[in-house]
Design goal:
About 4% of the residues have low confidence. Strands 2, 3, 4 and 6 form a four-stranded antiparallel beta sheet that branches. Strands 7-8-9 form a three-stranded antiparallel beta sheet. With 203 residues, the protein is an alpha+beta fold. It is built from four helices and nine strands. Belongs to the Nudix hydrolase family. PCD1 subfamily. Keywords: Hydrolase, Magnesium, Manganese, Membrane, Metal-binding, Transmembrane, Transmembrane helix. InterPro entries: CoAse, NUDIX_hydrolase-like_dom_sf, NUDIX_hydrolase_dom, NUDIX_hydrolase_NudL_CS. It comes from Denticeps clupeoides (denticle herring).
Length: 203
């Protein structure tokens, strides 16, 4: 089985479908986590927020943004935003699965400046990774420092983007990260369910 089919098979085990449709009504946003194979190796595509933005300027993120009333579901939101931000046509995307929802205080529309990619395995390696714990949240806040070979620039990948990259890389590659993640790689849904429960309990 090649890298693409192996990743698809592994990720589909974590399809949540509508199992969490009972969540409270909140402003919604979706991100697309684009994966592709280059040279037989799984890669993750990321964007960089515009330096002109008033908040989180220059941060690395996944393409995505806010739900619009005309969107049928969260998948259409993610595909529409990816096309607007990076020119990725929806008909060229194979949606493998929907992963667990997450709650963030930011929920801002992303306006990227450039696109770059990183090998998926990078997000399982310890040499460019650091993390710290927060008393108000389960798990850790993760940081990676990535040297983009195309531009020669160093990119800091952290927070929600780093966490999603770790989870997807670990699941798709079936590879346990070489650092403490704060969640069970074989059952990451349990961690995200705890996070949701904690947030809902504060409503």
């Amino acid at each position: 089985m090649d890298a693409k089919e192996k990743a698809k098979e592994a990720l589909r085990r974590f399809e949540v479908g509508n199992s969490l449709s009972c969540l409270p009504a909140l402003p919604k946003a979706s991100v697309l986590i684009p994966l592709f194979v280059r040279g037989g190796e799984l890669h993750v595509l990321l964007t960089v927020r515009s330096p002109q933005l008033r908040s989180n300027a220059g941060e690395v993120c996944f393409p995505g943004g806010k739900y619009e009333p005309e969107d049928r579901d969260e998948i259409e939101t993610a595909l529409r935003e990816a096309e607007e931000e990076i020119g990725l046509p929806p008909d060229q995307v194979e949606v493998v699965c929907r992963l667990w929802p997450m709650v963030t205080k930011r929920g801002l529309l992303v306006t990227p400046r450039r696109v770059h990619c990183a090998p998926g395995v990078f997000f399982t390696q310890a040499h460019k990774h650091t993390c710290y714990a927060l008393a108000t949240l389960p798990g850790f806040v993760h940081f990676f420092m990535y040297l983009d070979p195309a531009s020669g620039k160093r990119r800091e990948i952290w927070g929600l983007t780093a966490l999603l990259a770790i989870v997807v890389a670990a699941v798709a590659l079936e590879k346990k990260p070489a650092f403490t993640t704060g969640f069970d790689v074989e059952n990451p849904l349990a961690y995200f369910q705890r996070s949701l429960d904690l947030w809902i309990s504060k409503l």
